[in-house]
Amino acid sequence: MLHLSGGSPRTRGHLVSAADLTRDDAVLILDTAEEMARVADRPIKKLPTLRGRTVVNLFFEDSTRTRISFEAAAQRLSADVINFSAKGSSVSKGESLKDTALTLEAMGADAVVIRHHDSGAPHRLATSGWINGSVVNAGDGTHEHPTQALLDAFTLRRRLVGPDAGLGQDLSGRRVTIVGDVLHSRVARSNVHLLHTLGAEVTLVAPPTLVPIGVEHWPCEVSYDLDAVLPKSDAVMMLRVQRERMNAAFFPTEREYARRYGLDGERMARMPEDAVVMHPGPMNRGMEITAEVADSARCTAVEQVANGVSIRMAVLYLLLGGSESAVTNYRTEESK
Amino acid sequence: MKTLIRGAQILGGEPQDVLIDGETVAAVGTGLDAAGAQVIEADGKILLPGLVDLHTHLREPGREDSETVLTGTRAAAAGGYTAVHAMANTFPVADTAGVVEQVWRLGKESGYCDVQPVGAVTVGLEGKKLAELGAMHDSAAGVRVFSDDGKCVDDAVIMRRALEYVKAFDGVVAQHAQEPRLTEGAQMNEGVVSAELGLGGWPAVAEESIIARDVLLAAHVGSRLHVCHLSTAGSVEIVRWAKSKGWHVTAEVTPHHLLLTDELVRSYNPVYKVNPPLRTEADVMALRAALADGTIDCVATDHAPHPHEDKDCEWGAAAMGMVGLETALSVVQHTMVDTGLLDWAGVADRMSFAPARIGRLAGHGRPVAPGEPANLTLVDSAYRGPVDPAGFASRSRNTPYEGRELPGRVTHTFLRGRATVVDGKLT
């Protein structure tokens, strides 16, 4: 079992918040994901580790990308996968989270991967006593998205340190800049926690309207000036910015946002040579990122998707699989 | 029917006997004759005037699944209250003489506690059109406190007119101060904790800006303004300033805002979801100091019962509010008396005299003296014990204090001489 030693005892055995992970927890997940990534390079991409275990993808919010990533991860570990989409189900007819959870519990879910529009819903599911299985937060409201932060850290370590050289390593001293709608971003929250835990220096860049009140207590710097920060960044993470935000006066127009906070080729050229551009997707081309940047070799957006499967395999494995090394397990099965 | 309360410390003073004859206090003194009277030994106990709540949600009509006038007044009596003001946000809204008279009549029938209905300021609490304030005042319910509580009268012109209009019958407008645009999607106090939890922020300025506007309006038209459930240090400063000008502004604070902070929201347990939200430690300390120095006039429970399913869910889907009638006095003892900020005479003022005065409620909030109505509450202040919601008289259990050890227990409550609580049990 993955014991989240740094987190609240109440959420142990679950992955609810990146803040619950210690440095050693996080490095273990990244190292395990590295082992999982090697499996993806084999002709048969499947491990027997979670055979007979059931993973439920409980999605109250549409997110095909995240759901299929978790689905692929669970299937590669030979788990049975049940997809429970709130749309078109009893949930849309007013069934409560509690009754849905009790139903899944009765069906014998070993892990529940939950995506929910309300911040805290996974925490509630993990601590309410409604289910016994492990809860994995796949994004809750504007709170957290811990597996996204893990796959981002994994991508960074691979790019900045190397797949093999990175094993056992954290991100000490690496400078990561996160740009965009921090206020509404669960990706930013999880990344600030995790990158800080892994020793990276994080700077948030956004218009002041999109930075939360209280951010001064976060373990990071805040800047309103993208151009000042770019030359000092080993990685720049562009967050998706919804165009509708301008209707609530967070910024005047889409064009002004793109001019001040968007990443184009000219700005990218001011970044250090080896620096990478990240994006959790889906991208708003022309808004926070231009096509030139999105399609450049520096942009890791597609790698991030591939790495997401490895990270989610690692998380499910560590939560459900046991304490043995995934690879040892794999080789044992292979030699049979 | 006579009752002799022997050796009680009236408002925390020296032990005295109090003789109740019929509906009134007949005598106060030492060594009173017990002949023909039922005797209650009250050694070491505190005797207070019956508590008065300016802010209670009794939910009837409309949400009888969470509370009724009967269950709510039983909860009130158990908490030491002899009068409560029933808020207007019922279904239908208490915005006509008919509805306020219904609530008033249900209160009469309950017999546990006087129920003084509060009338809505605007039709349907919609903030657009004044309700028939005069008709509600002239009705049998005799409404003098008007509030759209739950919603803010945010239109400055409507607020001004309401303040002016109720002067004709010495009414008061009790404002739920919440600027609606600044609190769209608000789920908790905006600050360090909301930033981390990713819950929509309810900024202090949304309360303070409305209070600032309202005290100026009240001054301009020379009316009485009452501010509901003050929750921030900044609100305290504004009310203090308004009072220093001599304007007729009064304010209340809830027990939970005197004790709990937004740090509790980290559990995402909706039992801590309330409006206005739990604030910070600095706010709590400012509210206590303001209640002690009289800037805040009174404690009001904002007793807000909700059915279990409305709290047994994710934070965003949960209802706002906490029950409070049965724990209010304990929380006030814990936060104000045991800390040395207020003595029992101060408690009597903040929980009985002042709210009765603000509500212009006859027969309540009176001194414990011969000839006065026998509305009395006897408190065992030495008691300590955990809060057990299973023992509540309220129909709802949404208390934030479950399992928390709190001091003080109401052992007896008298409503016009009749015991509604005896030895901690409802009659």
TrEMBL record, chain A:
The keyword Transferase applies. It is an enzyme of class 2 (transferase). GO terms for cellular component: cytosol. Residues 14-157 form the Aspartate/ornithine carbamoyltransferase carbamoyl-P binding domain. L-aspartate binds at K93, R186, R240. The gene is pyrB. Gene3D superfamilies: Aspartate/ornithine carbamoyltransferase. This is Aspartate carbamoyltransferase. GO terms for molecular function: amino acid binding; aspartate carbamoyltransferase activity. The lineage of its organism: Bacteria, Bacillati, Actinomycetota, Actinomycetes, Kitasatosporales.
Automatic annotation (TrEMBL), chain B:
Substrate binds at H57, L58, R59, N89, N275, H306. It is an enzyme of class 3 (hydrolase). InterPro entries: DHOase, DHOase/Allantoinase_Hydrolase, DHOase_cat, Dihydroorotase_CS, Metal-dep_hydrolase_composite, Metal_Hydrolase. Zn(2+) 2 binds at D149, H176, H229. It comes from Streptomyces caatingaensis. The keyword Cytoplasm does not apply. The gene is pyrC. Zn(2+) 1 binds at H55, H57, D149, D302. Belongs to the metallo-dependent hydrolases superfamily. DHOase family. Class I DHOase subfamily. Keywords: Hydrolase, Metal-binding, Pyrimidine biosynthesis, Zinc. It holds the Pfam family DHOase. Its EC number is 3.5.2.3. The keyword Metal-binding applies. GO terms for biological process: 'de novo' UMP biosynthetic process; purine nucleobase catabolic process. Residues 44-232 form the Dihydroorotase catalytic domain. PANTHER family: ALLANTOINASE. GO terms for molecular function: allantoinase activity; dihydroorotase activity; zinc ion binding. This is Dihydroorotase.
